[in-house]
Amino acid sequence: MSEEQQPAPKLTGRQKRKLQEQDELKSIEEKSKQPENYVDTKFFDDLPISTKTRKGLKRSNFRQLTDIQRKAIPLALAKKDVLGAAKTGSGKTLSFLVPVLEILYRARWNVNDGLGALIISPTRELAVQIFEVLKKIGFEHSFSAGLIIGGKDFKVESERISRMNILVATPGRLLQHMDQSVGFDCDNLQALVLDEADRILDMGFQKTVNAIIDNLPKSRQTMLFSATQTRSVKDLARLSLHDPEYVAVHEKSEHSTPHNLTQHYIVCDLQKKLDILYSFIKTHLQNKTIVFLSSCKQTRFVFEAFCKLQPGVSLLHLHGKQKQTKRVEIFRKFTSTQHAVLFSTDIAARGLDFPAVDWVLQLDCPEDADTYIHRVGRTARFDAGGHGLLLLLPTEMEGMMEELKKKKVPIDEIKVRDSKQQSIQKQLQSYCFQDAEMKYLGQRAFVSYMRSVYLQRNKNIFKATELPTEEYAASLGLAGVPKIKFLSKAKAKETAVSRLLKEGDDEEEEEKEKSKEVRTKYDRMFQRKNQDILSEHYNKLVDFENDTVGNDDDDEDFMTIQRKDHDLESEPEEEMKELISENISKRQANMTKKHIAKKMTKGERIVFDEEGNPHQLYEMEDEADFLKAGDAKAQKEAYISEETKVMESADWEDKATAKQKRKEKKEKRKLREKQELEELRRERGEDMEEVVYTLGSGAEDSYDEQVSGSEASSSEEDEERETFKRKWREAQESSSESEDESPSGKKRVIETDEPVTLADQEALALKLLGA
Ligand SMILES: Nc1ncnc2c1ncn2[C@@H]1O[C@H](COP(=O)(O)OP(=O)(O)OP(=O)(O)O)[C@@H](O)[C@H]1O
């Protein structure tokens, strides 16, 4: 039999699958080169993607594409850099996860190829969520995937990280690995994704992100996604994007928030906020609500206080100062609960996809309209409905409304009927009175709220000095106002500035009045503002003889001497001679030179001839001498050109100095802003200590297992509680030791971070005495 006639060898099932896979690979590779063919694609099944990804999508019940997915996925599959902007809850996560899987699949990536895709998220919770979705839709693929958010043994993680193909990470811990994990290599990276890109690129992460990007190869594909997308050329330049495609789904739409979201705001006084919150919760017990507050301490206090009030619905709280395990536990609890209230800082503001949230209540004003949009976006996700309620102080109303209008946020005012409000101030007072820990939390909440308002950059909205501190403290149940230094300073500064401005205005008014009158030369002379100064100078001039060496008072003296510029006697020279003869020290000589300089005429240079006679610098030349140097015109031109050169060089130097000064000023301002922002973030608990969870190959080394492994670690709140108890015990011990010497009971005061008022101390003393 000839070779041609021989029957084809029988293929094993595995070989057949391999061949099919190769055919599929070729076909999707070709098809994905033409993204324009997929602009109207409705179903994932019709996209040029692998069967493996398709199966994963089906398993998670993702069949139809959302708008952003329809626009972004085909471009990303064609290996384009993408800037994706779409409303909250519109499905951005799949817009980058599907391409990530496909890009690596098409590159036939395997464990030995190292890191192929890197997804960066600003918070741990969001990273966990992205990782969960990746696990679901990527379950058919054989890539290894890891979650780098902190919390695990760095060494263990270091050993595993070199085997990861896809990493979902928060910036801090990722950089730590780049710096310290020997096996961590990203030279082959194919795709970089920044979720919540505007947040990752903002100043808070600037240094870290720049350092990360420096470690990545430039030839990668980059994808940026956010509901409030950055288009800052500078930011994008940092990422070296190649001809990026801007995919903005809501740019032309009338509003920037989901259409199925109703949004309202209430204007209320600061001291009324907690009453309104309580009344709201009591009337929405059958709902799932997220309440946003501006700092960790406040979140903690409101949570503890409301737990005591027992409104009749389960209460949870989430902030950056809790340990990771606790945060995950709360995150999961809130996800699975039907009716609950979650008090949270902005840690939950971005990207988190809690199902079926009915209400987002922003108890404290968000720092800007973008933060508002992200917070309110925790409800009305995908095609669900939802409600947003924003509480604004009268001082915040105008500025915030302006910002929201600019960002196309449709929001209307509603009024709360006083009769519907229930005051909880008395209960809070009694909690703070009975329970020192509550009072301590209240004080810290008070200070941290004030600080967060004070640190906000938009002073059009946030006016810390106008807040009713006494009423606010009372509304938290505190007997007195904790002392806050920064606020007193800010108030003093404001008073000084307004006084200066007022004086300036008064003077201006006075000037205007006077300018209306007809004034003679003598009037002007007597009205001169610096009359006193001049007369004083005149006196100094008279006292000149008594001036001592080294008495280099100030510029005014210098000006006085200037007035003596007519007598060009040899006075300076004589003084110099005297000094030389006295053989004074170098330092004294320097001082004396200053002194001499004071007495010299400013702007008049004198030259001495060989006999030591002083001459003016410029003196009349006779005509013959003048003509020796060429004709007048040529001399004039030469002179002009020389002077022009001098002036140009001086001009250039001036410009360079001015530029340098501007640069320094800008750098200083940036540094100050950055420090303020970092402080604000710390205040909100966003400076999360990075911890690690790693997944093994195939993403089956389950996250749950890792979590339960470190469950034993206590939360920071528990530690704080312990510290508080210790301090309490110490205070009690010290008070019993020193009972005799301290009848006022002052030594029994519990140590707190914030100052305690006298009334508080008395209350505490009574409590300690068992009264
Ligand atoms: N094609 C789809 N079909 C059905 N549900 C989808 C689809 N895409 C996304 N979803 C669901 O919509 C919800 C929101 O998606 P996702 O979290 O990706 O939104 P997002 O645009 O990233 O929101 P945010 O701006 O808040 O981060 C999720 O519950 C997700 O499961």
UniProtKB/TrEMBL annotation:
Every Helicase C-terminal domain range: 273-432
GO molecular function, one term: RNA helicase activity
Motif stretch (Q motif): 42-70
GO biological process terms held by the UniProt record: rRNA processing
The entry's keywords: ATP-binding, Helicase, Hydrolase, Nucleotide-binding, Ribosome biogenesis, RNA-binding, rRNA processing
Residue ranges constituting the DEAD-box RNA helicase Q domain according to the UniProt record: 42-70
Biased composition (Basic and acidic residues): 18-33, 643-657, 673-685, 722-732
Residue segments, region Disordered: 1-33, 643-755
EC number of this enzyme: 3.6.4.13
Pfam families for this protein: CTE_SPB4 (PF13959), DEAD (PF00270), Helicase_C (PF00271)
Gene Ontology CC: one annotated term: nucleolus
Catalytic activity annotation: ATP + H2O = ADP + phosphate + H(+)
Biased composition (Basic residues): 658-672
Superkingdom of this protein's organism: Eukaryota
Location within or outside the cell: Nucleus, Nucleolus
CDD domains linked: DEADc_DDX10, SF2_C_DEAD
Helicase ATP-binding domain sequence ranges: 73-247
Bilayer-crossing regions: none
Keyword Isomerase: no
Family indicated by similarity: Belongs to the DEAD box helicase family.
Domain notes: The Q motif is unique to and characteristic of the DEAD box family of RNA helicases and controls ATP binding and hydrolysis.
Function: RNA helicase.
Name of the protein in its database record: ATP-dependent RNA helicase
Native organism: Phascolomyces articulosus
